[in-house]
Every structure is written in structure tokens, then in C-alpha cells.
Amino acid sequence: MFKVIRRSVGPASLSLLTFKVYASPKRDSPHKTSVKVNELSLYSVPEGQSKYVEEPRTQLEESISHLRHHCEPYTSWCQEMYSQTKPKMQSLVQWGLDSYEYLQNAPPGFFPRLGVIGFAGIVGLLLARGSKIKKLVYPPGFMGLAASLYYPQQAIVFVQVSGEKLYDWGLRGYIVVEDLWKENFQKL
């Protein structure tokens, strides 16, 4: 193609000096015509027609496809349940971390109070021998009584709120019973 001729003056230690480079065509190569840009294969579209041929599916691919179609309802159900339970689990974990931090820096006298309230629950469980209703009522009742001795303000608020809720439930029950009573006696 081209021959590069380099001319420099000076020893190798003076390599920082500039020098000139001359390029000249080889004398023994035949003269070629120049190639245009649109004639380059890089810029042209190949002239054959290409056709996409899908390979046949193998037995393994068919088995995996069948398995995926069979498991799809279960995986979508699992994804849905995960998206529903994730926020609840995150709030539960946060509550656990907050409780742990509170117990690490508990106010003075907290653990003795907690022990008395727990002991009251155990006493209620021991006194409720025999009856299942007593086992459901006595331990929470004794624990609530012991907790109300240590935390009277919170006990008053709890009683007020629970009293209002019980009144609402009773009123709703009364309305339902009254409607049923009217429907049964109007048909007779």
C-alpha cells in the first residue's frame, strides 16, 4: 500500500525532538481505482432474502412449558399473598423493634409492675379451674384489675372506650333482634 519513510536527526537520547513522516505509494503494486462509500459492504444491504425458521421444541422445553402453565395460578397466588402480607410483616417487625428498644430503656419500676400483672393472670388461671368460661374471663379480668392499680388513667380511658363499643354492639344487636321480631310476626 504505502511505504512510510522516517527521517530524524540526532541520537536516541534526543527523542523529544520532532521529526517528519512521509508516505508514498509502493512502486511495484498495480494501480487500483478508489472505492465509493456506498460500495462498501458495511453500508449496503445483503442481497439474499433471509427467512426466520423457528426450531422445533425439544421434549425438555415442552415439559418445562407444561410445568410453568400448571404452576402459574399457584405462583400468582403466592405473589399476591406476599404483596398483601409484606406491609403487615414490616409493621410487625417495626413494632417488635420498638418494643425491644422500649424494654432496653424501660422506666424505673416497669418490670416489677409487669411481674405483678403477670402473676395476677396466673392466679386468675388457677382460680378458673373446671369451667371454660371462667378460664376466658378470670385471667384477663385479674390482669386488668392489677394493671388498673398501676395505671389508673389508662384504665379509665380503656373502660370509657370499651363501654362505648359495648353500648354500640348492644344497640346493633337490639336493632337486629327487633327487625327479626317484626318480620316473623308480620307474616303470621
TrEMBL record:
Q: Where are the transmembrane segments?
A: 110-128
Q: According to its UniProt record, where is this protein mainly located?
A: mitochondrion
Subcellular localization is given as:
Mitochondrion inner membrane; Mitochondrion membrane
Q: Which domain of life does the protein's organism represent?
A: Eukaryota
Q: Which Pfam families match?
A: ApoO
InterPro entries documented for this protein: MIC26/MIC27, MIC26/MIC27_animal
User: Which UniProt keyword terms apply here?
Assistant: Membrane, Mitochondrion, Mitochondrion inner membrane, Transmembrane, Transmembrane helix
Could you give the subunit structure recorded for this chain?
A: Component of the mitochondrial contact site and cristae organizing system (MICOS) complex.
Q: Which family does it belong to?
A: Belongs to the apolipoprotein O/MICOS complex subunit Mic27 family.
Q: What does this protein do?
A: Component of the MICOS complex, a large protein complex of the mitochondrial inner membrane that plays crucial roles in the maintenance of crista junctions, inner membrane architecture, and formation of contact sites to the outer membrane.
UniProt-recorded name of the protein: MICOS complex subunit
Question: Which organism is this entry from?
Answer: Vulpes vulpes
Q: What is the lineage of its organism?
A: Eukaryota, Metazoa, Chordata, Craniata, Vertebrata
